[in-house]
Amino acid sequence: MSELLSKRDRMIAATSSRPELQTSSVASTAGASGTKLPKLTIAPHAGDLCRWNDFWEQFDQMIHRNGSLTATDKFNYLRFFLRGDAASAIVGLPTTEAC
C-alpha cells in the first residue's frame, strides 16, 4: 500500500507541473489511408501494481498529455478511472488547480 501511495504522490506531482486532456475515449478518426479507426477507451485501474504501467500509458497519452485540459480536469478524470484501493489512495485530495 505504501508503494501505491508513493506512486500516487509522484503522479500528482507530475500532473500539477503539466496541464493537459480530459476524456474517457478518443473519437474514431480517419487514418492516412482513409480507414476509420476504432474508438479508444481507458480501462479503470483498481490498484493492481502489475497492471499500473498499462493503465498509466493509456491515461498519460489520452489525458495527462492533453494540453487542452486543466490540472483539475485531469485529476477528475483520474478519479473517474480509479477503483478500489487506487481510488482510496486519492480520496482525500482536493480537486483544485493547486493540487
Automatic annotation (TrEMBL):
Ranges annotated as biased composition (Low complexity): 23-32
Membrane-traversing stretches: none
Domain of life of the native organism: Eukaryota
InterPro entries documented for this protein: DUF1759
Biased composition (Basic and acidic residues): 1-11
Region ranges (Disordered): 1-32
Pfam (any one): DUF1759
Protein name: Tick transposon
Source species taxonomy: Eukaryota, Metazoa, Ecdysozoa, Arthropoda, Chelicerata
